[in-house]
Amino acid sequence: MDPWNSAQDFVRCTLCQTSVPLKYCEVCHTHLCEDCEKKHLSAFSEIHKVVSLQQYFTTLTYLNCEEHPTEQCKIHCDQCDIPICTQCISSKKHLKHTQTEILKKSVLHRELHELEKIVYPTYQEIASNIQMQKADLNKNSQKLTTDINNQGKLWHNKIDTVIKNLKSNVADMESKHLVVLKKQEDEITRIISEISHSIFELKKLLNSKNVCLVSEYKSRNPEFKQLPLKLKVSLLNFKPREVHIDQLTEQFGFLSSLSFTTDDQHYIMSFQGAKSSPLDRSLMDVPRIISSIDTMYDHISGVSCLNDTEIWTRGLNNIMNLYNLQGDLLKSVQTNTGNNPWDIAVTRSGELLYTDYHDRTVNIVKNTEVQTVISLEGWKPLNICSTLSGDLLVVMDSDDKDDDYSGGDEDAKQTKVVRYSGSKKKQSIQYNDTGEPLFSSGDTKYISENRNLDICVSDHDASAVVVVNQAGKLRFTYTGHQSPTKRQFSPRSITTDSKSRVLVLDCNNHCIHILDQDGQFLRYIENCHLQLRIPMGLCVDTKDNLFLAEWDTGKVKKIQYSM
């Protein structure tokens, strides 16, 4: 409520108690009407400061200084944490103390306006959006439950139909068997009856003295001794198949992965209307080589960080080596088939993964024992990465379309990204919303998961980096940064850092492209001897140090590119 324009509280002159006051003495804290103002100011024994009542209500009332009562405290001593006046400033007591001006009322108005018009509505909008998301979540959950129930009913109906058919088959076969058995039973009954009659006749002859009857007897024993063929009925049996829950789940349907995404940035509101501005770690103008690690490889093709001090490497043989930053060989692991590893990665728990393209397997190394996690049919694993949630993302390409195809055309193959939880398939990413393939055919693909849970695929054959979100929906495609001095973009190894930046190796231009999480080009890394070597593999440690494998030297360079 505005006290100046409000009539709710009727204020009267402090002196006469009858007239409406138009003035106020800030020293005596007294309301004054026009007549009483003159009397009040005539008191020469006191110092007064009379202002209009409107001015009094629209300006801050400063406290009178305790040490200098005639002065108002418009300054705050930060060390003493008390209000002080101008005379206090020059005293020895507050000398060299940090002092700040007490807020003016205009500042308070501005603060109030900002809170009321910008900050508060923004938070209301956020709260409203949360309610909408909760409603959408509930609505979607109900829809999912209905869909699952409908699928369950469909499966129940199909299973009931199968059971009904099987039972019907059992009844039909039983009926057919009974007909055959009844026929033989009737025949046996007839023969038994005839045998019984022969026995009766023989006994009758034995008791008879009639020679004629005895001479007329004809034995049927040879006939009866020729037993009928035994009917052997093979009883039916039911051979139930083993129920594999993984196969049932895959055939029944599965839920897409749960996704909680936030902008991995901090935002502030501007006074003009809450525009957001991201705070990002700055990139170094001139990246520098911190160290160089010599490996035992003549040609090194891949590198993956175990931690900030150890790296796994692979080359043109079936041995994967673990080195520390001083170049000491800590461990060696050989593939279980003798094939060269196609790619390597490290799980969140520190276990080595590798793909065996020719054996169609994804394998994990526990201590020194190699265990197969995934075996594929019709597909061959290419590159792999371990996600923040512990899932595995595997790029794979298919075999040729059919056995009769002999054109050798790579277009006969398909490429997809599959998410696994252990050996269980959870998600397949292959097509965009219009049914077109997201990835080109061909076996040169690299993959990395970003901190915002995007899946980044370096597609060498398409000369592009394809980025989809966690649900597999296309976010953007990066085809290089326009530059008159650069050749066609030729992406190879790819990795991401703690700020969700994407780093991709360009083998045609011997440089590294750095992109933000939305695919915007930030800068190149093109020094650090990149122009003189053949860069091949990339990875980033937890401190955003870049490890670069050099194909032609067999070395791994540790590079600092961000502050």
How does this model look, in words?
- The protein is of the alpha+beta class.
- It has helices spanning 34-41, 53-58, 86-89, 105-206, 211-216, 221-225, 245-252, and strands at residues 23-25, 30-32, 50-52, 75-77, 82-84, 99-101, 283-294, 300-305, 310-315, 319-324, 329-334, 343-346, 352-356, 361-366, 369-375, 379-386, 392-398, 415-421, 424-429, 445-449, 455-459, 464-468, 474-478, 491-496, 502-506, 511-515, 521-525, 535-540, 545-550, 555-562.
- A four-stranded antiparallel sheet has the order 7-30-29-28, with no helix packed on it. Strands 8-9-10-11 form a four-stranded antiparallel sheet, with no helix packed on it. It has a four-stranded antiparallel sheet with strand order 12-13-14-15, with no helix packed on it.
- A hairpin with a 4-residue loop joins strand 8 (300-305) and strand 9 (310-315).
- It starts with 22 loop residues before the first strand and ends with a strand.
